[in-house]
């Protein structure tokens, strides 16, 4: 079937291959392989400000 001819909303949508597909791995370990730990200020979703390493 030609999905574009069927006019499906997702026919032209780019495939998702983002971070959600790292699988059953430790997220912190996965990120540390690509992003070096850096000191700095972080803010939680609740607005709490935390200081320290981004990988603590």
UniProtKB/TrEMBL annotation:
Biological process (GO), any one: tRNA wobble position uridine thiolation
InterPro entries: Rossmann-like_a/b/a_fold
Top-rank lineage group of the source organism: Bacteria
Protein name (record): tRNA-specific 2-thiouridylase MnmA
Species, as recorded: Bacillus safensis
Phylogenetic classification of the source organism: Bacteria, Bacillati, Bacillota, Bacilli, Bacillales
